[in-house]
Amino acid sequence: VTFINNNMSFSVWAAQTFNNSYAEIDIIPAYSFGNFTTTIYDYYNPVPGADNNYFSFSGENNRHSGEIAIGYNGQGIVPLKVMTGTFMYGDKNPETKKAFYSTYIEMAYPFAVKMVDIELHAGFTPAKGYYAESFSFVNTGVVLKTDVKLSSYLKMPFMFSGLYNPDTSKAFFIFGIGISKI
């Protein structure tokens, strides 16, 4: 769910596996200025069967991690998009207990074919951390988006993503649907 007012947005995102092996709740405020967007992510990942408290932000029971990201939405002849994000808390090396400061960098090329917006992207991590054991491409894929007009003031956005992680050799498919004001 995302609320947008001028240059500010506030999102809440949640996921739960069918077998209860994973859950996530994310709080995501963002601010856009010109072609740039700054985003703060708070990821909450409760551990199945453990003592979980959403409001615990320290110690062994902390299930939060936080990331700061900045993105550039290119315009003109080469509309290349670039985003980089770095974990600032909750991302610890299990051996040293010190912060990894895991970083993710993604480049994307958006274009449209008829009524479908398409985005090809590739993302990598420059060093050992949360995403991989060393420099590695960890996200490649395509995103397809389109809107279906429901009325003069409502539309239904559709999204499909096909993603592949070359580092782990795993593929993922994501489908999204919503309702939005025109």
Structure description:
- The protein is built from no helices and twelve strands.
- It is mainly β and 182 residues long.
- Strands 1, 2, 3, 4, 5, 6, 7, 8, 9, 10, 11 and 12 form a twelve-stranded antiparallel β-sheet that branches.
- Strand 9 and strand 10 form a beta hairpin.
- The mean pLDDT is 93.
Radius of gyration: 18 Å
Cα distance spanning the termini: 16 Å
Q: Give the helix proportion (percent range).
A: under 10%
Judged by helices, strands and strand pairing, the structural class is: mainly beta
Rough outline: globular
- Largest sheet composition: 12 strands, antiparallel
Q: How many separate helices? A: 0
Oligomer: single chain
Low-confidence stretches: none
Report the order of strands and helices: EEEEEEEEEEEE
What is this entry, summarized?
The protein is mainly β and about 180 residues long. The chain contains no helices and twelve strands. The two termini are about 15 Å apart.
